[in-house]
Structure formats: C-alpha cells, structure tokens
Amino acid sequence: MLAPGTRFDGFTLLHADRSLVVLDKHSGLLSVPGIGPEKADCLASRAARAFPGARIVHRLDRDTSGAIVLALDADTHRALSVQFQERRTSKRYVAIVAGDPPSDSGEIDLPIRKDLDDPPRQIVDFEHGRPSVTGWRVIRRGRSAQEVIERCDALGATASCTAFDSLPAPAPYARLELEPRTGRGHQLRLHLKSVGLPIVGDDLYAPPELRPHGTRLMLHASHLAFSHPATGQSLAIDSRPPF
Fold it and tell me: Which domains does the chain have, with CATH numbers?
C-alpha cells in the first residue's frame, strides 16, 4: 500500500485502504472528463491508472484543489454516494478573498440556479434558485494578499508569490474557512462574490484586477470527513492548503 504523501502527476495521496483512496487534487485538473477530446484528461483517468477501479464519488471544480475521495469497488462507491447525497459528510474549504468581512463569522443563504444564458456560470435567483447555504469564519485579515497567504508552493499549479505582487494593495483581504451546507455548483464562489467578497483568482466571478497572470483560484478543500463504508467508523482527512 502506498504511503500518504506519495505524489503523482496532478494529485497527491492523502489516504489509501482496500476500499477507497482520498487524493489531494491539484488546481487546474478536471475531476471528471469534460465535453470534447481536449477535456479528456482528468483526475478520474489519472487516478484509475494508479489505482485500478477507482471511481469518483464527488467533484471539485477544475481550479479548486484539495481533498477528494474515490471508491475502489462498486459497493463502496454506492455507500459513499448515498452519504454525499444525504449530506452526511463534513467538508471545509479555505479561501483567500478580497474585501473586509463584516464580522468574524456568518452564514450566506442565497438560492442558486444555472445561468442558462452564460454557462457554466451560476446566478442567485430568489424565485427559481435551489436553496444554498454556506457557513464561514475569518481565519486572518490583512491589508494585502501576502498578509493572509501562508505558502506559495502551489503543488505544481501556476501560483507564485510574485503573482500576488500585482494584486491591488493596500486593500483588505481575508483568509476564510468555509463550510458548505448544501452542494450546489460554484456555490462557494458565487456566494462569496454575491456578498462582496470575491475569491482571488476566480476567472468566473472575480473582477479582472483580482486575476493577475499566474494566480490560481485561491480555494482549497481542506477537510473531508465521512463514515467509512467498510468499518462504520468516522474517517477524517485534512489537506494543507498550498497557499
């Protein structure tokens, strides 16, 4: 069995047993294939070469890094899928945002639906949107992005310390911990943008000045916990953000 910390092209191993693996997906890699041959390369195909039979249970956006679980057999995949569908899992993320949060913690409750005129964007729609809730808390505040960024070894992604030099400063930034209580597409990114706290590097929802060349999406899935289908015991995995 491979040891945690083993690195592959596009991901790092966080946990492995006979039933499942938890991987640290790098930013810039699709979770599953997209439409067209140019989007065939993805975590699912790369992981299957390293772990035969591995199947994606849930997804992360292409530019979001962090913890993601894959099942190694059909029964495990089925059991884990039910847990995610029924929201019996725990997920937390870390993000760098532009702006000054109004308090040290809070909740964003805004309904979301697909933007049919501009896919893959999502929009807030109080009439037709699906209920969507995100909890958040401030980890650190700063007057520049550098003050709230802890690391610059972005696991092979394009982020670097020099890329952050071109971000607006002095200006307020914050390092947030996020807890999605629903699982809508782009939920964290849209929710934060909608309350005036866009994520740095977000090419869909942040203004151009927050997307300097070489800056990745500053969003990382830092914690994942669920009941292990084979043992019934809770399995909690943490992934240190690369920023």
Answer: 7-89 (3.30.2350.10), 91-219 (3.30.2350.10)
